[in-house]
């Protein structure tokens, strides 16, 4: 049993391990190559988060999905580079919107160089992803553009908030399907498609990725409240401080509205009063960490992870399928 990829995923087959490790190494080299510029400062800014590391969750999914066809097909590694570049670009933009100070355990790009450079560097990464994508054919371009549209739509809907009498939790889960699920789904789709897997397999893995992506983001929501910076690579409560709606807070608000318990209403008022003050922020974190809303968010994470696992049922048994199933467990484990 060898540990590879994010969350200590264990691979129980030497051939699969070799394929995954070789593929991820090639992706890493591809990321460094794609983020080079003739202008040294642009290279430094573009490689800032590449060199900071990261789980490479999406490239790993590309490699595992490719096991259902020819994992050595020429489009597999470039498609993994595309999805990771796209993901990295969104992180630069997210940190500007969230005013985050830390990303992957290092100062965020906006903290180091300012918002304008961070946004433009994200745009540079999008451009490089598009350049690589163009070599993969028009169908790949269409798939990626549709996913990117969903990603941006999800971000807009999150920023705008639920409209009318739309349930905030339902709205938020739809947002996550666009913001996170879309690109994780494309990772699985590209891996299967580029490897020449059957269309039915491509469909199954795409649906698996969509659900796993939502579970992955819900686990992040839980970690924003429950973890310390060593675990997550981010300042604890970053989303909470910035007033970004996450599932534990949405469940808290729903409980306060439905039952009116004084302690729930008081905690909502504390959050709504602003958490720029460190003492208020620490108090809100302390109280949320013991609130049933956090456990409810954990249960939602488990539900999406189990839905992802169920999607894999029609696939043939084997080490690749087992690894994809283990990723469902790993995502849940992150959420405690």
Description:
The mean pLDDT is 91. 74% of the residues lie in helices and 3% in strands. The protein has helices at residues 14-34, 40-46, 48-51, 57-65, 76-98, 109-113, 115-134, 138-160, 168-194, 199-226, 229-232, 238-241, 247-259, 262-272, 278-289, 292-311, 319-334; strands at 2-4, 9-11, 102-103, 106-107. Helix 4 (57-65) runs antiparallel to helix 5. The chain is globular and about 60 Å long. It contains 17 helices and 4 strands.
List unreliable stretches of 5+ residues.
none
> Counting H and I runs of at least 4 residues, what is the number of helices?
17
The order of strands across the largest sheet is 1-2
Question: What fraction of the residues are assigned to beta strands by DSSP?
Answer: under 5%
Largest sheet: 2 strands, antiparallel
Radius of gyration based on Cα positions: 20 Å
Overall mean pLDDT: 91
Number of strands: 4
Helix content: over 70%
Report the principal-axis shape.
globular
Helix/strand/pairing category: mainly alpha
Give the distance, in angstroms, between the N- and C-terminal Cα atoms: 23 Å
Order of helices and strands: EEHHHHHEEHHHHHHHHHHHH
Quick synopsis:
The chain has helices spanning 14-34, 40-46, 48-51, 57-65, 76-98, 109-113, 115-134, 138-160, 168-194, 199-226, 229-232, 238-241, 247-259, 262-272, 278-289, 292-311, 319-334; strands spanning 2-4, 9-11, 102-103, 106-107. With 336 residues, the chain is mainly α.
Topology at a glance:
Blueprint: E1 2-4, E2 9-11, H1 14-34, H2 40-46, H3 48-51, H4 57-65, H5 76-98, E3 102-103, E4 106-107, H6 109-113, H7 115-134, H8 138-160, H9 168-194, H10 199-226, H11 229-232, H12 238-241, H13 247-259, H14 262-272, H15 278-289, H16 292-311, H17 319-334
Antiparallel strand pairs: 1-2, 3-4
């Amino acid at each position: 049993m060898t540990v590879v990829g994010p969350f200590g995923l264990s691979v129980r087959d030497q051939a699969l391990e070799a394929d995954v490790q070789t593929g991820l190494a090639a992706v890493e080299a591809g990321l460094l190559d794609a983020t080079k510029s003739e202008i040294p400062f642009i290279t430094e800014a573009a490689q800032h988060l590449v060199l900071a590391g990261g789980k490479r969750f999406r490239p790993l999914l590309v490699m595992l999905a490719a096991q259902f066809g020819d994992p050595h097909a020429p489009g597999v590694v470039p498609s993994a580079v595309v999805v990771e570049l796209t993901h990295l670009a969104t992180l630069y933009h997210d940190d500007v919107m969230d005013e985050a100070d830390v990303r992957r355990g290092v100062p965020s790009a906006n903290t180091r160089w300012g918002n304008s450079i961070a946004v433009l560097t994200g745009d540079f990464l999008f451009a490089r992803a598009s350049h690589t994508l163009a070599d993969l054919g028009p169908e790949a371009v269409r798939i990626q553009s549709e996913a990117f549209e969903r990603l941006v739509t999800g971000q807009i809907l999150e920023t705008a908030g639920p409209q009318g009498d739309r349930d905030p939790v339902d709205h938020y889960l739809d947002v996550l399907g666009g913001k996170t699920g879309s690109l994780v789904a494309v990772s699985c789709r590209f891996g299967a498609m580029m490897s020449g897997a059957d269309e039915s397999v491509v469909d199954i893995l795409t649906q698996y990725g969509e659900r796993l992506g939502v579970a992955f983001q819900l686990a992040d929501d839980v970690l924003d409240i429950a973890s310390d910076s060593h675990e997550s690579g981010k300042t604890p409560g970053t989303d909470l401080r910035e007033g970004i709606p996450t599932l534990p807070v949405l469940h808290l608000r729903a409980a306060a509205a439905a039952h009116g318990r004084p302690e729930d209403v008081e905690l909502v008022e504390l959050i709504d009063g602003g958490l720029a003050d460190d003492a208020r922020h620490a108090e809100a974190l302390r109280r949320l960490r013991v609130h049933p809303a956090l456990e409810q968010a954990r249960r939602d994470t488990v539900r999406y992870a189990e839905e992802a696992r169920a999607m894999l049922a029609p696939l043939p048994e084997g080490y690749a399928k087992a690894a994809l199933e283990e990723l469902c467990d790993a995502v849940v484990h992150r959420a405690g």
